[in-house]
Amino acid sequence: MSDLFSHRGEQLRRSLAPLADRLRPRNLDEFQGQEEILGPGRLLRRAITADRVGNLIFHGPPGVGKTTLARIIAASTRAHFSSLNAVLAGVKDLRQEVEEAQRRLQQHGLRSLLFIDEVHRFNSAQQDALLPWVENGTVTLIGATTENPFFEVNKALVSRSRLFRLQPLQPQHLHQLLQRALSDPELGYGDQRITISAEAADHLVDVAGGDARSLLNALELAVETTEPDDDGVIAIDLAIAEESIQQRAVLYDKQGDAHFDTISAFIKSLRGSDPDAALFWLARMVEAGENPRFIFRRMLIAAGEDIGLADPQAMVVVEACAAAFERVGLPEGLYPLAQAALYLAGTEKSNSLLGFFDALKRVKASSRQQVPAHLRDANRDGQAFGDGVGYRYPHAYAEHWVAQQYLPSGLQGQVFWQPGSLGWEGQRRSTLQLRRAAQLAAAAEHEAELGEVLSSSPDDPMLERWLQRQLGSEGERLDQLRSRLWDQATWQRHDRVLILEARSLLWALEPLQHTPEGGVVIQVPGSDEAERLQAQVQLLDSLRQPRILTAPISQLSRHLEAGQRFEWIAARHPFRTLEGITLESAVQVLDQLAAPTAQLRLLFSEPQLGPATALRSIPALPADLQVLLEPVQEQEPAWLACSPDLNLLTQLLEQRGWRLAWQRWPEQLELSLSNALIERWFGDQASYRQQLHGTLEPGELNKLQQGLRPLVGSRLPQQLQHHRLVATRRAT
To answer: Which of 21, 150, 206, 674 could cysteine-pair with 17, CB 3.0–4.6 Å?
Structure first.
């Protein structure tokens, strides 16, 4: 009976819960967004499905799914799941959870997952109390925080956890969520007659700024406060939407990431002589309530550090502006604040200071204010999340300037400062125009090269040792080819990689090292290779092991998770065994398996000398064998033609919208004639021997095979022509 009442109580609670809580996704299929860490084939999705999540910390802004992910894990795990809110819980609550976890483990062998929401709100002592039990495996920690865990969470906890940075939801995800809320009869408003105009929907999505909870709360307010018309229809127009959600909040924490990242971006913009970006980041700090005295202090440092004696007046101007600010205060003090920033960035006093207020309006109106990754402060978590990676230090370039992106991606090309034609700024007007054009080009290139780093994992010494052993097992020459194949690859930790027709692990070592939260799939030609490679990866943790498939290219998608795509597809000598399908069909399969930002890397090695040509170069080769090999040598150029047809491959990829870059280089080799090499060329099952049928009789082939054995150890010349293809999707 108590279960019946509990069930009814839960139903009543859900019916009275806010819309955002009722619509919370219950499984991964309902979860919106975060494809970069939860997409098919990626590590976190595989870990949740396999019930092997380990210690996790989710961090990101409100309303992006941190708590929801924890609940999905709770619904899918066989372990006991319990949760605490760090705002309400203390050491006593932690101790009670640990004691219960110990009891379950000792009596029933049952693992315990402990979810701590707002984990950064635990003080240092509380986090220290949790550490021993996480370390010895008594509890598995899942933490959620809106703050940077590298700054707010115990470093020992961070080092034992996988970190995932959740991003604000994209507009298309919010629109899908809006439609689900309006159409779901059980959890949403599907049982009511509600219409919403396109303008109203766009306004709700835009002002929500990637926050699903904010969007659903606004929709709920609009529906609950709007009276139905005579036909019983609740019509939500733009005016109602504007009343329901009126102002976008500037996400800014004076003690957290936004503070450090934004001041870092501001100083780097000053150093890079970009007044537009400098005004934007200054406006963001002012709008968020940053102390202007702190900004002046940083500008005084910049005047000495980045301008120095190149312009001795810089320090004087900033100091004078700081004194003026102290005298007039806010809001009029914004003028000397902006003036000092523009002077350091390369401007003169003029009415162009009004450009600061254009930037301020843009801050209030724009939803795209995220600091580009290369401008963020790299001192605390840059190694884990790539913050600061890709930043070009202007002092290292000619004229102490380099074209690079300083504004957010969504604001590239925005001009806030228009220099006048007179005086100091007039002398720099043409230079600034040229630099702005160069920056637009550099920003487009940078955006194509770098993506957001969204996850981090503890170091894995066993993996590093395993990789070193594998690297040393294939020889120096093949290792150099591996380096050429992956040269200048820009990895994301959550990338998924497909290696085609691999006969060794060599070509997968680079992805295994650089994509710990992604996934590596290796296609092998046969079961023998699959067994050999599977034995080699057994030392790795099961979640880090590459998946090895023996399926042909034409059947790959049947063996993959539905919807799984790859950011990288690579191979050496691909398409050697197409097994009844054409090259065009194979390219079509790869095109379908490629993610929208995929890169294709293929390496072809074309021999320039066949066996007959190489053997005839041996000075001691008997005359009768020279005669036997002469007609064979004449036919070898046709046999050596590179397979597949690289011109056809180029044409097929370009037709499908790929942008191609070929790199070619020769290689001179010297082979040693050995019994194994003779058998590989002329043995009964050798493919080369099959090609010689019709040119030489079986008896002549046997004579050739036996006549070469006394020459074992002779040096044979060989020339290879390597072709490396790097193909990327064309921007649409």
So the answer is: 21
Question: Same domain for 89 and 210?
Answer: no
Per the document, the length of the chain is: 732
Q: Tell me the residue type at 409.
A: S
Is 679 within a domain? no
Range of the structural domain that residue 477 is part of: 461-602+642-661
Count of structural domains within the chain: 4
Rounded Cα–Cα distance for residues 55 and 73 (Å): 12
Residues 524 and 480 in one domain: yes
Say how many Å lie between the first and final Cα of the chain, rounded.
61
Which of 403, 418, 449 is where one domain is finished? 449
Query: What is the separation of C-alpha 442 from the centre of its chain, rounded to a whole number of angstroms?
Result: 20
Question: DSSP character for 557?
Answer: G
- Look at residue 705 and tell me if it is in a domain: no
Q: How far is CA 558 from the centre of its chain?
A: 26
Q: Are residues 275 and 420 in the same domain?
A: yes
Question: Is residue 649 located within the same domain as residue 517?
Answer: yes
Q: Is 658 helix (H, G, I), strand (E, B) or coil?
A: strand
314 domain residue, yes or no? yes
**What b/e string do you get for 716-731 counting C-beta neighbours within 10 Å, with b at 16 or more?**
bebebebbbbbbbbee
CA distance 195 to 233: 7
d(CA 589, CA 559): 13
Q: Which segment, 385-389, 458-462, 506-510, 685-689, is predicted with the most confidence on average? A: 506-510
Q: What is the spatial distance between Cα 515 and Cα 491, in angstroms, rounded to a whole number?
A: 7
Same domain, residue pair 469 and 558: yes
What pLDDT is stored for residue 251 in this prediction?
47
CA dist 150 and 190 (Å) reads 43
pLDDT of residue 250: 46
- Percentages of the chain per state (helix, strand, coil), in multiples of 5: 50, 15, 35
Q: Residue 20 in contact with residue 223, Cβ under 8 Å?
A: no
Query: How does DSSP assign 419-441, residue by residue?
Result: --SSHHHHHTHHHHHHHHHHHHH
| C-alpha pair distances (Å), 502 with each of 235, 535, 576, 593, 604 | 60, 15, 11, 17, 13
Specify whether 225 is located in the same domain as 261: no
Same domain, 410 and 470: no
Structure tokens at 439: 């920056």
Q: Are 476 and 597 members of one domain? A: yes
**Final residue before a domain boundary, out of 185, 212, 244:** 244
Q: Give the domain CATH number at 328.
A: 1.20.272.10
- Rounded Cα distance between 345 and 416, Å, is 13
DSSP H or E stretch at residue 546: none
Q: Report the Cα 667 to chain-centroid distance in Å.
A: 35
Instruction: Supply the CATH number for residue 129's domain.
Output: 3.40.50.300
Residue 449: pLDDT band (50, 70, 90) is very low
**CB atoms closer than 10 angstroms to residue 35:** 18
DSSP 315-347: HHHHHHHHHHHHHH-TTTTHHHHHHHHHHHHT-
**CATH code for the domain in which residue 512 is found:** 3.40.50.150
* DSSP secondary structure code for residue 374 in this structure: G
Q: What is the pLDDT of residues 111-163, one digit of tens each?
A: 888 888 888 888 787 788 888 888 888 888 888 888 778 777 878 788 888 88
Residue 42 within any structural domain of the chain: yes
Q: What is the dihedral of CA 351, 355, 357, 360, to 10 degrees?
A: -160
User: pLDDT tens, 295-339?
Assistant: 898 898 888 778 766 777 888 899 999 888 888 877 888 899 999
